[in-house]
Amino acid sequence: MTVSIIIPVYNGEKYIKQCLESIFVQTFTDFEVIIIDDGSTDGTFVLLEELCAKNSNISIVRQENKGVSYARNKGIKYARGEYLCFIDSDDYIEFDFLEKLVGAMKEGDCDWILSGIQDFKSEKKLKKIILPKKEYVLSKETDCLQFFNLLLLTAPFAKLYRRDIIINSNLLFNEKISYAEDREFNTYYAQNVQNVKSISYIGYYYRTDSINSLSTVSYTHLRAHETKANL
Predict the structure, then answer these.
(1) Which residue from 159, 76, 73 is spatially nearest to 150, judged by alpha carbons?
(2) Which of 56, 107, 117, 229 is deepest in the core (most CB within 10 A)?
(3) How does DSSP assign 129-174, residue by residue?
């Protein structure tokens, strides 16, 4: 198994179908999907059972509402793939998203791939965030400074991680905090990797108008922080 896609969802019946359908049509097919239903009170779980009934590479895990960090950690626990990919349930990906990121990861000895995103609202495309095409060796001071100034560095989406690094380094999302937990996770991950890449490809579509998004609050803060940092 090459990629494990981890999707935490809470009351996501409005958008989860679009998210999953974008995964079903991927040109790269060696992946599994692990969906963590974090105590949804709407029709999310029933819809998930219907959408995933014919797909043997999808697992649905139900739990009491314990938050996005707990859900992502459970996904990490069940994952079997060489790489991990986190997707929010109200977002979706381009048909060649996995192909592009896996291809970039396998070009050389790479520990982490970061790509850009396309903001959208009510199906209308808004701002793009495009990252430079660049390789970084984090033991080099200049590369390290450039890397840690990248936009989207601390968001969990639009990236591929190596599962063995996460497991061997005992990395988990902090379940004790509900703010910037993804920033903390990525900071620790960065301390355990050497060769990373950012690519100019954009294949992740980030929804800005969902009240149930598990990443909306932290990502809004993240963008404000990074915009100021990169002026």
Answers:
(1) 159
(2) 117
(3) E----EEEETTSHHHHHHHTT-TTTT-SBSEEEEHHHHHHTT----
> Is the per-residue pLDDT at 82 higher than 80?
yes
Q: The whole model's pTM is what?
A: 0.91
pLDDT tens digits for range 177-228: 888 899 999 999 999 999 999 999 999 999 998 765 555 444 443 443 333 2
- Note whether 181 and 69 are within 8 A (CB): yes
Q: How do 134-137 and 124-129 pair as beta strands?
A: unpaired
* Beta-sheet strands, E only, within the chain: 3-9, 31-38, 58-63, 83-86, 92-93, 112-121, 124-129, 134-137, 159-162, 195-207
Give the C-alpha separation, 184 to 38, whole Å. 21
Q: Pull the structure tokens for residue 48.
A: 């998930």
Q: Which residues sit opposite 26 in a β-bridge? A: none
Question: How far, in Å, CA of 90 to CA of 94, rounded?
Answer: 14
What is the C-alpha to C-alpha distance for residues 37 and 89, in angstroms, rounded to an integer?
10
Amino acid residing at 128:
K
Helical axes 16-24 vs 44-52, angle rounded to 10°: 20
φ, ψ of residue 174 in degrees (nearest 5): -75, 110
Between β-strands 83-86 and 159-162, what pairing exists: parallel, antiparallel or unpaired?
A: antiparallel
